[in-house]
Automatic annotation (TrEMBL):
Its EC number is 2.7.1.-. The lineage of its organism: Bacteria, Pseudomonadati, Pseudomonadota, Gammaproteobacteria, Enterobacterales. GO terms for cellular component: plasma membrane. It comes from the Bacteria. Keywords: Membrane, Transferase, Transmembrane, Transmembrane helix. One of its GO terms (molecular function) is transferase activity. The chain crosses the membrane at residues 35-58, 78-102. Coiled coil: none annotated. The gene is chbC_2. It comes from Escherichia coli. PANTHER family: PTHR33989, PTS SYSTEM N,N'-DIACETYLCHITOBIOSE-SPECIFIC EIIC COMPONENT. This is PTS system transporter subunit IIC.
Length: 117
């Protein structure tokens, strides 16, 4: 028996029961389901943040590596365009997560999910 096999068995023996108990808890499941539903928005926001700070920032890594300041002298203006988009997507995502956690809690308590706001 290899080291990895014994490690996997130990993890299954100790962590799987804890994970099962946590997964069956209503509050944790409601938060989990809220984040799972908003995952596409999380990915889009992450890409916008990456573009805004890594590529469009004049002091950013990729802009310095590719010398984008000499090619595009107005990188600050492009970054100023993406900043409200970034803030708006993160703000909308947080409102959706708060709504979805309340909705999932209402569903788990078998209440009307539309009045859970």
């Amino acid at each position: 028996m290899g080291l990895m096999t014994s490690f996997e068995r130990g993890m299954e023996r100790f962590l799987v029961p804890v994970a099962i108990k946590l997964n069956s808890q209503k509050h944790v499941a409601a938060v989990r389901d809220g984040f799972v539903f908003t995952f596409p928005i999380i990915m889009a926001s992450s890409l916008i943040i990456l573009i805004n700070f890594a590529i469009l920032s004049p002091d950013g890594f990729i802009a310095g590596l590719l010398h984008l300041n000499s090619v595009f002298p107005n990188l600050e203006k492009a970054q100023a365009i993406f900043t409200p988009v970034m803030n708006g997507s993160v703000n909308i995502m947080s409102i959706m997560i708060a709504f979805l956690v309340a909705r999932n809690m209402a569903i788990s308590y078998e209440q009307d999910d539309l009045y859970a706001d």
